[in-house]
Amino acid sequence: MATQTPARPRPDREEGPRGAAPRVRRRLFGIGLWMPATVAVLLCGLAWTAVAEDQPYLLPPLREVGTVLVEDPGLFLGNAWSTLQIALLGVSFGAGTAFVLSLVMSEVPVVRRAIMPLAVVLNVTPVVALAPALVVAFGFGMAPKVIVTAIITFFPVLINMTTGLRSVPVPVLHVFSTLHASRLEVLLRLRVPSSLPYALAALRVVFPLSIVGAVVAEFVAAGSSSGLGTMIRTSAATARLEYVYAAIACLAAMGVLMLALITVLERRLLFWHESQQ
């Protein structure tokens, strides 16, 4: 009588995906994710405290910086809102203008050859030198500060978008040509979606950079009465270092939040892209 070999248990195909979820959670919430950053922050805090105790005219104690933030949060929130307005308006104008120009430059090579040298010259020109002329031309209001911020955020978006619009795979272009797609269809259905990773990478740079541009504008543009940059300038003139570093902490927090928002947006829009896998 023939003996039957017992069948081997089939591997559970669901085990892989089910086992992958705990691994993902461990990567997201494991000790290896937050421990290095925590140790680095603690070491920086200890170094700061040591320098502040030995040379208080260089760095204020951290407790004084925290006390200033806690005792008068309205002062910092109001000035932060003024700086944030300049940053958002500046990045909107700068990035929007760069996006439109990159679309035109990708379709009309003559425009690209004419505009790109001017954009390079504008990028290498110190913005601090342009600020007084902008104040004379546009007055002492918000306009010169927004223009300074727009100039600072213009060039990275222009370069990234131009590169993204031109980096379309040739075989895919041949497919569109075979289907007799118009130039507008190629632009809207192929070039713009292909340039989306480049555009979001540029936004990750220019959104925090807009905070820097707004502060620089408040430093160099005359007539600034509010904003964290103005607070830093006036507090440094009167040697109130705790206010200076409290304002810097607010600027750093604003930059981190803006970068986090762009990162979340990038993960939502580019879930299909290999960089998010």
TrEMBL record:
Q: What is this protein called?
A: ABC transporter permease
Location in or out of the cell: Cell membrane
Q: Which UniProt keywords apply?
A: Cell membrane, Membrane, Transmembrane, Transmembrane helix, Transport
> Which segments carry the region annotation Disordered?
1-21
Reply yes or no: does the keyword Transmembrane apply. Answer: yes
Chain segments annotated as transmembrane: 28-51, 84-106, 118-140, 146-165, 198-223, 243-265
**What membrane topology does the UniProt entry give?**
Multi-pass membrane protein
The organism's taxonomic lineage, starting at the top: Bacteria, Bacillati, Actinomycetota, Actinomycetes, Streptosporangiales
Domain named ABC transmembrane type-1: residues: 80-266
Q: Which domain of life is it from?
A: Bacteria
Stated family: Belongs to the binding-protein-dependent transport system permease family.
Protein's UniProt keywords contain Cell membrane: yes
Query: Record's Pfam families?
Result: BPD_transp_1 (PF00528)
